[in-house]
Amino acid sequence: MALERREHRIALEILYAVDVGHRPLEEALTHARSGVGVFARGDEAKIVDPYEPVYPTMDRRADAQRVTDWPLVESFVRGTLTHQAELESQISPLLERWTIERLAGIDRLILDLAAWELRFRPDAETLAVINHALELARRLSSEKSAGFVNAILDALAKSRPSVAQ
């Protein structure tokens, strides 16, 4: 599960390109696989991202320890987008004094991605899913967001799904 850290980040970047950047899904997937545009981080990623030496962004990098599991990335993205409305309907009641619409785009997508995995990927370890979401929130949003994401995902993990799978 820990090795999926890269797949979670890439999936989140694709979700962001589609949801916030309004890019067509197939285009975002192609760009991610090809390392085009925002996905072309190259070796500069090592400088700005402390996890890159261990989990490089793209498998074509010389220091990549393993190849990216692209089918897994795609399942994260397609699953999250397919079930986004129902996942957000399960997340919404857990947002005390907040609404889905008020959340920062990146925080909402981190919650959506982790919620999909908690609800629709039975082999996923709950603690690993939440930890990966927290890492993404800390790195891409803020420390406050990480605490918020933790509270929501913990409550979601302890609740029963309200929508039939």
Description of the structure:
There is one protein chain. This protein is mainly alpha-helical and 165 residues long. It has one domain: N-utilizing Substance Protein B Homolog, Chain A (Orthogonal Bundle), CATH 1.10.940.10. The protein has helices at residues 5-19, 25-34, 44-48, 70-82, 84-91, 105-120, 126-140, 143-158.
Q: Secondary-structure blueprint of this entry?
A:
Blueprint: H1 5-19, H2 25-34, H3 44-48, H4 70-82, H5 84-91, H6 105-120, H7 126-140, H8 143-158
CATH homologous superfamily designation: NusB-like
As a whole number of angstroms, the C-alpha radius of gyration is 15 Å
Beta-strand proportion: under 5%
Overall morphology? globular
Can you write the helix and strand succession as a string?
HHHHHHHH
Largest beta-sheet details: none
Known CATH architecture: Orthogonal Bundle
Please state the structural category. Answer: mainly alpha
Helix content: 55-70%
CATH topology label: N-utilizing Substance Protein B Homolog, Chain A
Which stretches of 5+ consecutive residues score pLDDT under 50? 52-59
Q: Please indicate the count of domains.
A: 1
